[in-house]
Amino acid sequence: MAENAQIQSRPNYGIDAPGLVRFFFSAGAVALAIFLVVLFSSLLGQILKIVVGTLSGIAATYLLGMGCFMLYGSKVMKLKDRDKLLDLVPWSGNERVLDVGCGRGLMLVGAAKRLTTGKAIGIDLWQQHDQANNSAAAALANAVTERVTERVEIKTADMRQLPFPDDYFDVVLSSWAVHNVEAEVDRKKALDEIVRVLKPNGRVVLSDIIHQAEYAHYFEHHGMTNVQLHNNAIRDFALKAVTFGSFAPSAVSACKRA
User: Fold this and answer.
1) 35-46: buried (b, 16+ CB within 10 Å) or exposed (e) per residue?
2) What percent helix, strand, coil does the chain show, rounded to 5?
3) Which phi and psi (to 5°) does residue 248 adopt?
């Protein structure tokens, strides 16, 4: 796989939900065009101009603003959050790490940079609607750029049926991936697998944009210890307000009982 990795000057961790980003910008452009037509039209009555102009202006501002925010989240916010999440793990450098739904390798590469003799393994199904140009080759290209290829391994696998033995990993990570499994019963299968492959005293850090309370409840009721929710209350409130409760990134961490 190393021969297929492209040479790049800096890591590229892609754009999350590219279809949604395109929708926001496209719909926002249409709303902006309507606003400008109404603003400079001499054919509409004053009341109609005020009503349509106000509604289209609000729509354009919201849609284009959300598109810009999603780009910022993919290119800036997630990198900052990654370092904070990885700081939750007391690294020794020799851990065996699993990144569930590794995508283009954001958490995978970040973990590998903290290892010395350990190994970070990433698994994914490489769905394009979850992340732009999502592929094993893209993840490996980022590992090459960050100079951690000797500590990284990438596999194609389903998080609901992990191809690893019980009690295999010291650390399991996942970022914005488990929510892509739509059915709750399937998300529980993914959590079952995460707990199964985690060693006793191992640590899981699971970041997502929704369902965090569901994950914490699961860990608490399956014998995990030190279950904690890591969030920014002010940011969560603002994001839930502008996304109608559908987006508020935070993380759950827990340890497997010895």
Assistant:
1) beebeeeeeeee
2) 50, 20, 35
3) -160, 90
Q: How many residues does the chain have?
A: 258
- 94, two tokens: 């020799």
Q: Give the chain's radius of gyration (CA, Å).
A: 21
Say what the pLDDT of residue 237 is.
78
Rounded Cα distance, 142 and 91, in Å: 22
Higher-scoring residue by pLDDT: 235, 118: 118
pLDDT at 231: 82
Both tokens of 115, joined, read 């290892």
C-alpha closest to that of 191 among 236, 223, 232? 223
**6 confidence band (pLDDT: 50, 70, 90):** low
Please say if the pLDDT value at position 3 is more than 70: no
The H or E element that residue 23 is part of is helix 18-40
Q: Which two tokens stand for residue 190?
A: 């993914």
Distance of alpha carbon 183 from alpha carbon 46, whole angstroms: 50
Structural domains in the chain, CATH included, are 92-256 (3.40.50.150)
> CB of 105 within 8 A of CB of 137?
no
pLDDT, position 136: 94
Q: Could you tell me the two tokens for 13?
A: 């961790």
Which of helix, strand or coil describes residue 121? strand
Confidence check: pLDDT of 248 > 80: no
Please say whether the beta carbons of 104 and 13 come within 8 A. yes
CA distances, 196 to each of 101, 134, 168, 177, 212 (Å): 17, 27, 8, 18, 19
Instruction: Kindly give the pairing relationship between strand 250-256 and strand 169-175.
Output: unpaired
